[in-house]
Amino acid sequence: MQPTAAIGILLIAVTLLLALLVACAIVAIYLHNRWRLAQQQHLEGVQSGHQQQLLATRLEVQEQTLQQLMREIHDNIGSSLTYAKLALATLNPAEPQAAQQQIQMGIGAIGKALEDIRNLSKSLNADFVAANGLLPALEHELNRVSDYSGLATQLTITGEAMYLDAETELVLFRMVQEALTNTVKHALASHIHIIVTYNPHYLHLVIEDNGQGFVPAHQGGPQQGNGLGNLQQRARLLGGHCEINSAPGLGTRIIIIININTPK
Amino acid sequence: MQFDWHRLFEMYSWGYYTIPLLLLLTLYVAIKAATVIPPTSITRAITVYAAASALQNIFISVVFLYTSLYQNQYAAAFSIVLFMVIELACCYYLVKASGISHLQHRAMQLLLLLFGIYAGVYTCLHFFKGFYQDAIGLIQLPIMLLCCCMYYYNLIKRTPKQALLKQPLFWAIGGMCFVAMLLLPYSLVSDYLGDNKSTLPLFHLIPTFCYSILFFTHLKALQCSQQQP
To answer: Cα(A126)–Cα(A139) distance, rounded to whole angstroms?
Structure first.
């Protein structure tokens, strides 16, 4: 074989080998990119699902807030103002002594309505939770519940208290509000106790009452309203979970555990 | 001037016709793409590349086919060197269009400048010595390969946003990478083969094969470019 021909064959062999090498490298890059794109799309899907859940929860919290507002206006503020209106409408100028007493009662009822509006404003205002933190907001809420429902309330804090991010604290606060509303409306309880336990890794929040209790749905009881299910959904959204323990005659205990270090 | 029909048929027998065909098709599609929609930097680079390649091919064909002009090989060599500079500049623009860091941009500009100076000086020194362009090609091809590698490096590093097969740059730079890699060994020995009066038509199929792939990838890049929003 002539040297030129040998070089030629070698050249063609090398060229084919290089062509194969380049093709393999490009295919490898393509496959790698496709795999990363699939990963990326999966991640975006998960994030989008989470965002949708978050949005749904926000809307639900808004709805709950509006309902609470409506209830408060109807049950407390409305009744105080009705009482004041009645007191002032039935004034009899012929009996100054009784009239004076009725005016005082009317002023007292209006004062109570004002106080209720102030408390309600604090309770509904998300900035109040953000500005003061979860614990003062809980304390305020318990006082408010105690004032309008006559229930005895207690707040116990163990561990070193710490600030969580504003959104987590607000969602937790709304969850407690939901639980308290359920207790006042359905439990026929005389005592509510909230225990907040701080740990470097998690937050443990217990809301218990000494009410009539019920058989939870997961233990074969009748299906409850959305409220308890929403509590569990929101806890999951915060990267934690929520347990509902109850039995007829033994009260209800709601346990919320949030992992503080888990990115949500 | 005497037209050498025999040489024309010889060139055709090497499969040389595939390049002009693909080239003209690429040029047609590129010009159409550049005029119909607002041209992107990719369309512009491919159009310039195809136009330069077409002009260079026509010029070389004329030089080769007219025996009297064939005596003046330096003109053909000069056109090839000029095309190499344009080819590298187009490769630079394509890689730049993919979005590169400031440092990579500066490095590529410097390489392009150094190559331009080298090609200019080498041409001045060897202008009347016949075919000398392989020495310049041996520098141009690794630089082109480096630019392509830069693109692939960025591609691996970045978060993907779109399937690669739908990205015009992936096709266009892929073709460039093929040419740079496959023509490198050919450029190494082509001088030797030329000196030994090699008549093996198979050798000439190597650049034909490379540029056929290149123009095919450029056509695909233009198609992807038109499909992009």
So the answer is: 15
DSSP 8-state code for residue A94: T
- For residue range A41-57, what is the model confidence (pLDDT) as tens digits? 898 888 888 788 777 77
**H or E stretch including A155?**
strand A152-158
Q: What is the ipTM of this complex?
A: 0.80
- What pTM was computed for the model? 0.61
- Give the best residue of A17, A18, A43 to mutate against chain B (max B CB count within 10 A): A18
Q: Nearest chain A Cα to B191, which residue?
A: A4
- What phi and psi, each to the nearest 5 degrees, are found at residue A162? -140, 155
Instruction: Give the helix ranges, DSSP H, for B37-132.
Output: 41-65, 67-70, 73-97, 102-126
CA distance A163 to chain B (A): 35
Which of B48, B89, B75 is CA-nearest to residue B133? B75
Contacts for A79 with CB less than 8 Å, ≥ 6 apart: none
Cα of A7 to nearest chain B Cα, Å: 8
Distance in Å, alpha carbon of B209 to nearest chain A alpha carbon: 10
Are A12 and B152 a contacting pair at CB < 8 A? no
Check CB contact under 8 Å for A8 and B152. no
